[in-house]
Amino acid sequence: MVDPVPLLIMGSGPAGLAAAQEAVRAGVGALLLDEQPTGGGQIYRALGEATGERQKTLGTDYAAGAPLLTVLSAQCLDHQPGATVWEVSPDGTVYYTRQGQARAVSAEQVILCSGAMERPMPFPGWTLPGVMTCGAAQILLKGAGVFPASGAVLAGSGPLLLLLAKQLIGARARLAAVVDTTPADNYRGALKYLPGALRTPGYLLKGLSMIRTLSASGVPWYRGASGLEAIGDDAVAGLRFKVRGRQHEVACSNLFLHQGVVPNVQLSRSLGLEHHWDGLQRCWRPILDGWGASALERIAVAGDAGGIMGARAAEAHGRLAALGALNRIGVLSETERDRRAAGARAVYRREILPRPFLDRLYRPHPDYLQPADDTIVCRCEEVTAGQIRKYVELGCLGPNQTKAFGRSGMGPCQGRVCGLTVSEIIAQARGVPLEQVGYYRIRPPIKPVTLGELATLEQPEDA
Amino acid sequence: MASGSNFHRLPEPEYKRLTMTFDGRTIEARSGDSVAAALIAAGVTVTRTTPVSGVSRGPYCMMGVCFECLMEIDGVQNVQGCMVQVREGMSVRSMAGARTVSDARTPGDG
Amino acid sequence: MPETEFAVVGGGLVGMAVAYGLQRRGHQVTVFDEGDIAYRASRGNFGLVWVQGKGAGMPDYARWTRLSAALWPEFADELKRKTDVDVELTQPGGLDLCLTESELADQVARLEGLRDALDGNYPFQVLDPGRLRGMVPEAGPAVSGATYFPEDGHANPLFLLRALLGAFRAEGGRIENGGTVSAITPTRGAFRIETERPWEAAQVVLSAGLGNAKLGPMVGLNAPVKPNRGQVLICERVQPFLNYPTVQIRQIGTGSVQIGDSKEDVGFDDTTAPRVVAAIARRATRLFPLLENVRVVRAWGALRIMSPDGHPIYDRSTEHPGAHLVTCHSGVTLAAAHALVLAAWIGGGEPEIPYLETFSGKRFQLSSAA
Ligand SMILES: Cc1cc2nc3c(=O)[nH]c(=O)nc-3n(C[C@H](O)[C@H](O)[C@H](O)COP(=O)(O)OP(=O)(O)OC[C@H]3O[C@@H](n4cnc5c(N)ncnc54)[C@H](O)[C@@H]3O)c2cc1C
Ligand SMILES: Cc1cc2nc3c(=O)[nH]c(=O)nc-3n(C[C@H](O)[C@H](O)[C@H](O)COP(=O)(O)OP(=O)(O)OC[C@H]3O[C@@H](n4cnc5c(N)ncnc54)[C@H](O)[C@@H]3O)c2cc1C
Ligand code: FES
After folding, report:
1. Which of A85, A322, B51, C29 could share a disulfide with C6, CB 3.0–4.6 Å?
2. How many Cβ atoms are within 10 Å of C273's Cβ, its own excluded?
3. Contact residues, chain C, for A405 at CB < 8 Å
């Protein structure tokens, strides 16, 4: 087993990289683990290797991550890419697999910066090959410079959808259509949050610029769409939808979906941390203090994994979490911690101001929170929304019972993709608030690990 | 090979060309590509059939979340193709339903 | 007027089997169960319908287990007919695999003891490595032998729970879940069930698993059950390779491979422990080296409900007639007997089998007084 480390940071997105910077600055040798082959997380994925062409296509927000990435070459940072973390124990032991070998390392403090994932958007046909997420399209672009030059439809709602449209248009892709599902009354509902958002106007200005690019491009842009259905036999061939009662059908060879991102809570859940339901963001977030610290002494959570906040706020949050952890291991005094934190705290406060407006504006369309009976919600085990509703009728009160009855959430993705939908369906079927329904009980390993790896694992206590 | 694909590459001559095979067919990739990205760039949409109903599936999230991209890579079954980078000469196969209990791992299997 | 004839407290495999059995005989039953997350062995077990080795020290338990295994096929058919749920029962006989000679010798001695206690009617077989590999070619070189019992089998315990619930509902049974029964008070020949709102029942069946320890004494019954943790690993789906269930590993209907199970005395802690998980994985890969590259997709810990001697407790209160208690640590195996035989006894019928009194909880009072 590897020697104990003072600080282990999991995730090398903005939150993890900023946390690593604070550790380096304090002279603490941190271990940084990430399952990706390169640092940067989702927003700055593969930035270190990106050509000028790629940076130009992806825009200034992408290139802006460069200063953060410099920490990866710091002497006292042990950066291990390609390391998949599959278990974190409450005592600070972290289990991961790298190059086919499972390892365990104990840390005095662990900061989980596992980021966000896209909210599932289930509707008939969403499991067809060729249907992917907008994030996936971005990953193709960032990681491989690959983009759909023709025949792609983007559907759903949210900033990432517009950003992708802008990036693809910039790459001279000929989009077949953008199908926006943002419900019309979301605009009214979001209005009351507008004044707050205007205090950090950068996001709104960027949004307007994306909208201008899309309008000027001549790409067919349908707004207020509902009733989505992907069609095709062995792969997606088109998208059907309604706009103001009128049926439309657009042929496509690829369909990219998006309806916001949600925290990746797999690890915080598996640790048994308490989570609360964020009604505005419609997702769960672990309960943390102002330093990202959890109820477990050795475990903190930073960035989007603790609640959707966006890249800049995630960076500031990563700093705060690192400073808190450095204080807890006795490297920084409280005064020094607070002094170093002042700047980050101000950035964090400023950057989260627009969130309520964005969250309300892009609240998912009810069609995709409550899919029709014949829609598959658990992609792995092919369980439909109707089956979940039947189990509720039988007497199931929550997702762990419907899981036992029908296997939803038992496949290799371990419930990541169906978890939120299943809870939403149960809540509505029972007529109770989602908080009362709860979430899957997540157990380690949170990523599949071979029996051979488990069998050869050296336990920390064996050392 | 990429002629059947509606995916294009940015003009980036900097990246090294690599070759791999998918179900025996030669695929051109570039250094830094994930296996799933290289396949998509080459116009491959279906990468497995499910063990539940046998329907076709392809990569969905590209970030390790959904497990739709399970493939056999150099003889190891059910590997997430979006999480593995292409190496020269790699042999990749689609998965048909459930895996077999032992991996093939035949050296040089193509 | 009581609102229900029978209140069954606890809706796990044991409670649902009894509730279904009562309801199908024309009684009117309401099941009280907790919410989505609870200590629930029925959701975390290994799914064996197992006879081999059960009943050492209590031959009636061996008889009872074999009766249930024999009733299982007709029981599974009945559930399928009523609910369309296939509980995936197969009974090809089962194996207990051994990694050392002494392990095998101990096991053979145990089974011989049972055979003697059952007057020679106990058809187990000892398999040397050669014969074992004839039946299970995938067994590794480290396996020193196995015992085989032809009546063993397995089922899908989760589908069983769903089928029991479905069949119970189809027969007109009622479910009240989401709350905890905090007290049961005998009142004028009936029972007051304290939960979200008080209920009145003519009779009560305590089948609350670990909860029985607390609830039993409220109606004059003794169930000194304690938790014992077992951890189970679930692997990805694999094409069929294992034709027999074994105590250590089985392949379920979907193709997933289940590996278990540890026995740990850790109180009310149903989390998983990496050290134990690693030990289970080591043993599994020695038994079946081919499994080395197969991935674990889930692991869980669940609490067994253990009585002091490991055998079931079936009891009725003499102090408060109408109160019954049922618990066991083989709720899958015994489901058929619980629904088809035990329920009749609880319902007031003549006992079809003579030895049910053997399982009374009084056996623990006597031994602790002694
Ligand atoms: C697909 C996608 C694309 C996005 N693109 C943009 C964009 O272009 N612009 C924008 O403003 N915002 C974008 N966002 C939102 C953006 O991700 C966040 O605002 C920001 O990246 C959050 O930073 P973070 O450090 O909290 O997490 P992330 O940047 O998401 O970093 C999390 C890191 O943790 C690692 N990780 C997770 N689980 C494990 C594990 N078990 N073992 C090892 N490592 C693990 C991941 O590999 C990842 O590198 C995107 C989100 C997604 C999901
Ligand atoms: C790891 C493991 C492996 C096993 N393998 C096998 C096997 O292979 N074969 C086999 O036959 N058996 C096996 N078992 C045993 C089997 O699972 C149990 O015998 C069976 O599930 C017990 O069922 P039960 O209904 O008594 O208990 P439980 O399933 O624990 O159910 C008790 C129910 O009572 C409810 N409850 C408790 N207190 C209250 C209260 N105060 N008010 C209301 N409701 C209450 C709970 O919510 C719960 O739903 C195994 C057990 C474990 C843990
Ligand atoms: S495409 Fe989702 S895990 Fe690879």
Report:
1. C29
2. 19
3. 158-159, 161-162
Any CB–CB contact under 8 A between B17 and chain A?
A: no
- The domain in which residue B73 lies consists of 17-92
Residue matched to tokens 């439309």? A248
Q: Is residue B105 part of a domain?
A: no
pLDDT, tens digit, 9 for 90 and up, residues A318-347: 999 999 999 999 999 999 999 999 999 999
Tens digit of pLDDT for each residue in C60-100? 999 999 999 999 999 999 999 999 999 999 999 999 999 99
**Which positions in chain C touch A391 (Cβ < 8 Å)?**
162
Q: Where do we find the tokens 């700047």? A: A343
Q: What is the pTM of this model?
A: 0.95
Out of B46, B48, B66, B95, give the residue to mutate to test ligand 3, the one with the largest number of ligand atoms within 8 Å of its CB.
B66
Cis peptide before A445 (omega within 30 of 0): yes
Given a cut of 80, is residue C264 above it in pLDDT?
no
Whether A431 contacts chain C with CB within 8 A = no
Distances (CA, A) of A385 to A131, A371, A388, A410, B64: 19, 6, 5, 16, 24
% of chain B at pLDDT higher than 70:
90
The CA–CA distances, whole Å, from C101 to A22, C125, C144, C174 equal 58, 16, 6, 52
pLDDT-derived band at A461, boundaries 50, 70, 90: low
What are the backbone angles phi and psi of residue A321, rounded to the nearest 5°?
A: -65, -40
Q: What length does chain C have?
A: 370
Domains and CATH numbers, chain C: 3-81+157-225+309-369 (3.50.50.60), 94-149 (no CATH), 226-306 (3.30.9.10)
CATH number of the structural domain A370-437: 1.10.10.1100
Tokens of A297: 């002494």
Give me ligand 1 centre to Cα B4, in Å.
Answer: 32
Q: How far is CA A308 from the centre of its chain?
A: 8
Within a domain: B25: yes
Quick: pLDDT tens for B5-44. 899 999 999 999 999 999 999 999 999 999 999 999 999 9
Please state the rounded mean pLDDT for residues A361-381.
Answer: 96
DSSP state, residue A120: P
Position B85 in a domain = yes
Q: How far is ligand 1, taken at its centre, from the CA of residue A113, in Å?
A: 9
CATH of the domain at B29: 3.10.20.440
Taking only Cα atoms into account, the Rg of chain C, rounded to an integer number of angstroms, comes to: 21
Q: Which chains touch C (3 or more CB pairs under 8 A)?
A: A, B
Give domain limits for chain A.
Answer: 5-117+263-356, 120-259, 370-437
**Is A117–B61 a contact, with Cβ atoms under 8 angstroms apart?**
yes
Please check whether residue B71 lies inside any domain of the structure. yes
Could you tell me the CATH superfamily of domain A120-259? FAD/NAD(P)-binding domain (3.50.50.60)
Q: What is the pLDDT of residue B109?
A: 39
Alpha carbons C39 and C303: distance in angstroms, whole number? 7
Q: Which fold has domain A5-117+263-356?
A: FAD/NAD(P)-binding domain (3.50.50)
The DSSP-derived string for C92-132 is S-EEEEESSHHHHHHHHHHHHHHHHHTTT----EEE-HHHH
Is-same-fold flag (A120-259; A370-437)? no
DSSP assignment of A301-369, as one string? E-GGGGS---HHHHHHHHHHHHHHHHHHTTSS-HHHHHHHHHHHHHHHHHHTTTHHHHHHHTPPPHHHH
Alpha carbon separation from C116 to C70, C110, C113, C148 (Å, rounded): 21, 10, 5, 17
Give me the number of domains chain B comprises: 1
Is residue A183 within 8 Å of A259, Cβ to Cβ?
A: no
Residue found by looking up tokens 């009310």 in the block? C268
Handedness of CA C74, C76, C80, C86 (dihedral sign): negative
CB atoms B46 and A235 under 8 Å: yes
Find all residues with CB under 8 Å of B6, minimum gap 6, and list them: A148, A149, A150, A151, A152, A253, A254, B43
